[in-house]
Amino acid sequence: MEEAFLVTRRSLVQRLSNLEDHRTWREFFETYWRLIYSVARKAGLDAFEAEEAVQETVISVVRKIPEFRYDPDIGSFRGWLLTLAKWRIADQFRKRQSKEAIDLESGLIEQPWFTEAWNQEWENHLLGASLERLKQKTSLSQFQVFECYVIKGWPARKVAKELQVSVGSVYLAKNRLLPILKEIIARVEKGEHEPTRT
Fold first, then answer.
1. Structural domain range at position 89
2. How far apart are CA 81 and CA 188, in angstroms?
C-alpha cells in the first residue's frame, strides 16, 4: 500500500518539467514556500522582500527545472533549491541600492550562517510537511496519540490519560506510524511528491 504513492526523484523532475501540471506546481509551492520565506526573513529581508524572494525562487525553478538532473554525486534537490533561493534573496538586497545592502548582499552567498539557517529551516520544514502527510494517511485519534508521544515527548501514561486510550494503544500508534513517518520524511527530503490518486 505504501509503495502506491511513492515516486522517484526522476518522476518529480519530469512532472515539474510539465508546466501545464498545475497540481504538481501547486503542491511544490505549498511544500516549499514557508521554507524559503523563513530563511529570507532570517537573512534580513522584510516581509514584502521575502515574499518577492519566494516568488522569484519559484520562477527560477520553473525556468531551470528542464536543466536539473538528479545526480547524488553532484548534488541534491535540497542543495539545488538552496542555491536558487540564495540568488533570489541576494537579488532583493541588491534592489535596495544602498552601499550597506550591497555589501551585505555580496557576502551573503558565502556566509556559513546562511547555510546553517537553511539547514535548520529545512529540518523544521521537513518534519512539518511530513507530519501533514502522515496526518492525511491515518485517523485523527491515532495521529494525536502519535504526536503527543513521539513528537511532543509526553510520557505514555500521560498520553493515555489525556487522550483516554490505553497505554498499549500509545505504543501501538508509535510502532505503526513511526516507520511510515520515516519513509515520508525521506521522500519529502528528496523533493518527491505523491502522485494524483484516481
1. 2-189
2. 13
